[in-house]
Here is the input.
Amino acid sequence: MSKLYDIYKKLKNENNETIYLFKSGVFYICLDDDAKILSKIYNLKLTNLNVDIVKCGFPCSSFDKYYKLFVNDNINFKIVENNTIFDGADYLQNKTLLSLLEKINQVSVDNLSVSEAYRFIEEIQNISSSLR
Here is the structure.
């Protein structure tokens, strides 16, 4: 089997009621029974991880869309990324925080006018208020 599947099986043994999404490159994927469930509900295409195991997923760029669908449909899910397990709300908050830090790191303060600096601070305030 694959290392990813071994992690999946361990997690499912601990909590069979949760759907586990694994961040894999530019996709979120789920495996085996979780894949069958999400495929049926959201019409996601099933493909083979190997001869015995199926997977399905969606692009990272669609995370916000699926997050809302999962929450609206009361899907109990967790995201597994870099050996860390997040619940959906924590993951979304972490993603927003990382995006905020990236924006800050990309600013060239030497090239900002006063009005651009003001707009930037306003944008950062708006993003950070969503984290509360």
